[in-house]
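Hi team,

Below is the intake form for Probable membrane transporter protein from Denitrovibrio acetiphilus. Please confirm the fields before the structure is written into the shared record.

FORM ID: S-0412
PROTEIN: Probable membrane transporter protein
ORGANISM: Denitrovibrio acetiphilus
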Amino acid sequence: MIIELICLLALGFISAVLAYLLGIGGGALIVPVLVVFFGYPVHEAVAVSLVVVVASSISITSVNLLKNMVNIKLALFLESAAILGAVGGGLASVNISEQVLSAVFAGIMAITAYIMWKKAEVDVSSVDIPLDMGEFDRDFMDAGRGELRFYKVEKPEQTMFIVFLAGITSGMLGLGGGVFKVPAMNVISRVPIKAATATSNFMICFTAAAGSLPYLMKGFFHPAAAGTMVLGAFAGSKFATGRLAKVESKSIKLLFILFLLFVAVQMVYKAVTA
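The structure came back. Fields below:
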């Protein structure tokens, strides 16, 4: 029991660090580990994941707001679609068998790995203030460059559609949806990757909270596991925001991609043999 609690603390810690670096919420790590290595039912693992994701995202976002990294207006505009998708996805998920949900999760993991591998990072920000700053256009503090930079947001309506799909994924599978939100904001709307990651973490707070409601109402929850992992997530978020502000995430991203592919295979096996 003690060993399991220590492992859960470590899982919460690592998920929060990855959430900070990649803006993905951490559910892509939490759910498969709970299912494959701890033997949790898929629905229960998703419920725990969503609660932990909310906790870590709140902790990370509180720091990002102070560092002037979050585009609040854009986040609130996009999040209306994400919440609708999350609630719908959660309602659909609780009525889907564990075998089907495992297979869907494996497919999402493979797609996630591909997106993270192929994702092109766009940065058209500038130290000069644009003459025609729009409603969603703003500045952010680039810690790596040590300077304030400005950017313009393009095609927010197209990004909103992707965010809606991310919300469905979040509600169904316990993901924060950031793996879709971050590339959409960066590639489609031209939000610099660091600002997109911070904005995604802010949005994930609401998406995951909305997606967790159907699971909690159906009784799919494990308080001890969730509470332990939340403690680990708070510690991980404090460590990441204090020590990793200037760290490049390329090496971590590659390892995470390999892990996602490994887990996808494990989830397929579980779906076939369950």
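SUMMARY LINE: The radius of gyration is 18 Å.

Thanks, M.
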